[in-house]
Amino acid sequence: QLTLVESGGGLVQPGGSLRLSCALSGRSFSNSDMSWFRQAPGKEREFVAAIRGGSTTTVYSDSVKGRFTISRDSTKTTLVLQMNSLNTEDTGVYFCAARPGRIVLSALRTPSSYDYWGQGTQVTVSL
């Protein structure tokens, strides 16, 4: 059974920070491309950040570049998204996603490129 379980969401004021975690189990994800996506009410699922399988290469959407950081822990069993300088437009349900191996760079931002998804964690940025 391959599972991804997100945690760390919550309510935060604009300018604040949150750290999301995605616990991985069932197989090794060290050589897998992994990403974070988010979905706001009434909107399509949106790419946030990715980390390439077998490397530390990262890719970010323009809207979060410089504020968010994606990483894997040393055991390769947890995917992390550190979110700083949050604003109201960051509100949504955040999902982690994974796929076996690597894909072309241009496909990283597409939800259909991923085979495994977590259940999501809610992030709300509000006064």
Q: TL;DR of this structure?
A:
It contains no helices and 11 strands. The protein is an all-beta fold and 127 residues long. A hairpin with a 5-residue loop joins β7 (68-72) and β8.
Q: Radius of gyration over alpha carbons?
A: 14 Å
Largest sheet: 7 strands, mixed
Dominant shape: globular
Q: How many angstroms does the end-to-end distance come to?
A: 40 Å
> What is the tally of beta strands?
11
pLDDT averaged residue by residue: 93
User: What's the SSE pattern?
Assistant: EEEEEEEEEEE
List low-pLDDT spans: none
Beta content: over 45%
Query: Given the structure, what is the number of helices?
Result: 0
SSE blueprint and pairings:
Elements: E1 3-7, E2 10-12, E3 18-25, E4 33-39, E5 46-51, E6 58-60, E7 68-72, E8 78-83, E9 92-99, E10 116-117, E11 121-125
